[in-house]
From TrEMBL, chains A, B:
HAMAP family documented for this protein: Spermidine_synth
Gene responsible for this protein: speE
MF GO annotations: spermidine synthase activity
Catalytic activity: S-adenosyl 3-(methylsulfanyl)propylamine + putrescine = S-methyl-5'-thioadenosine + spermidine + H(+)
The keyword Transferase appears for this protein: yes
Record protein name field: Polyamine aminopropyltransferase
Pfam family, one: Spermine_synt_N
Organism: Persephonella atlantica
SUPFAM superfamilies listed in its UniProt record: S-adenosyl-L-methionine-dependent methyltransferases
Enzyme class per UniProt: transferase
Associated pathway: Amine and polyamine biosynthesis; spermidine biosynthesis; spermidine from putrescine: step 1/1
Length: 277, 277
């Protein structure tokens, strides 16, 4: 029997049975496609689970919808990373969207996702979507005052993604947003990656006036507790209210109006992490 | 290097590094005490992680405080299972409590917890606590109309604990509660133990008029998403409001007033599970 283990830290890991494995070495990373009885097909980059057919909807819905809803009328959206296409799929559920730019550094991730994960990547062919195979950090330098929403759907802050967690990077994000723009980033697990989580928050807080942190249950990510950090200069994200009909029109399986209303109800120990930088 | 794996299902497990292992065979089960660099000391019963020093506060706070707070003045409390003492410790934080009965079938769990987990079991010596080494199902038959709050802190519904998830058992719980009494039970993971989760809900719904389900992040339990089911004939649990000062007086690390206010904000797919029995 074949078992794949992702080492969440050097002392704990998730172990998943696989019945089939495909391995591709891209210019940037090792890509594994596993067939797993528990989670369906699973995409693994450099040993880290990125997405699985069974639970991908949670991460992608929770990454995309709060920021999209807090913006009054999101038309231009940028997704950085996210070559599997799941975040783009969720963004396109919002009727106001006119163009979605996907900036992914590794073209192979897109090719693999379109081939093996059609339920996730299927919307990358939508005419509103334009794909850029580029470094997200450099891409932003050319786009000033352009986007309504920017979504950082990056892998963990090691290797190519490390720069995506720096103050300099968030400054570029801010410059690429329109005045009333909103950004959101996946910001790791407060339980097992406390340092990355706190660092992202403190860097984002230096750049944006209004910052909020929320969580979602992602069973295949370290500890199962995953964080997202949302920020804007113009929109007071922590008290944003949204017309319920906009939420109800979204076809979702995790996100709903109750989840939105309670977005920032954090456990006390997570609140405390944000008080002590 | 020594690794312990809990098989959450036959296809996925949590793998934890251990530096020391003690093994005790009780009349009912195999008890392991592991020293783990990631989670501190860990108590394992028949291969299933029950509690760890690092994250036990989450489960115990979330099991005890909502029911305790929804009762106007909880004085007599029964904990079934919970031999590690963590739930009793949380119950005793409520000033109105006059007596806590702990009914645990396996005395060895209490002995081991008092010896190796003093931060969890330390309050079992409190004069308000009375310990009964008995089968919870039989114990309830002798106590009619007695408790304000009954807390089912059972292990998974296999072996000795299976009966604690049956309609007959919940009927006994109801008879042992006073008229305005409240019960709460740990009811497994909606993600990986959907059948147990739905079964518990449907059985409890047959017996009690008002039933609510809530979740908490427990990193060392299957999938990290853990469920609790709370029920009462008298108290409308899903709309219960509580004086904020009662919450603020509790010394907690996870539970807080925001968590209480948002207790029943469930992801859509979990709501859907409760609609289709």
């Amino acid at each position: 029997m074949l078992w794949f283990t992702e080492h969440w830290t050097e002392n704990v890991g998730l172990t998943v049975r696989a019945t089939e494995v495909k391995r591709i070495q891209s210019k940037y990373q090792e890509i594994l496609i596993l067939d797993t009885p528990e989670f369906g097909k699973m995409l693994v980059l450099d040993g880290l689970i990125q997405t699985t057919e069974k639970d991908e909807f949670i991460y992608h819905e929770m990454l995309a919808h709060p920021a999209m809803l807090m913006h009054k009328k999101p038309e231009r959206v940028l997704v950085i990373g996210g070559g599997d296409g799941g975040t783009v799929r969720e963004v396109l559920k919002h009727e106001t969207v006119k163009e979605v730019h996907l900036c992914e550094i590794d073209e192979e991730v897109i090719i693999v996702s379109e081939k093996y994960f059609p339920s996730i990547a299927g919307k990358l062919k939508d005419p509103r979507v334009k794909i850029f195979i580029e470094d997200g950090n450099r891409f932003l330098e050319e786009k000033k005052d352009y986007y309504d929403v920017i979504i950082m759907d990056s892998s963990d802050p090691v290797g190519a993604s490390e720069v995506l967690f720096s103050e300099d990077f968030y400054k570029k994000v801010k410059q690429s947003l329109r005045k009333d723009g909103i950004m959101v980033a996946q910001t790791e697990s407060p339980v097992l990656q406390e340092n990355y989580f706190k660092k992202a928050y403190s860097q984002i807080t230096k750049v944006f006036r209004n910052v909020g942190v929320y969580l979602a249950y992602v069973p295949t990510y370290p500890s199962g507790m995953w964080s997202f950090t949302i920020a804007s200069d113009y929109v007071d994200v922590s008290s944003a209210s949204v017309n319920k009909s906009r939420i109800d029109r979204l076809e979702t399986r995790y996100f709903c109006d109750k989840i939105f209303d309670c977005l920032f109800a954090l456990p006390k120990f997570v609140q405390d992490m944000l008080k002590k930088p």
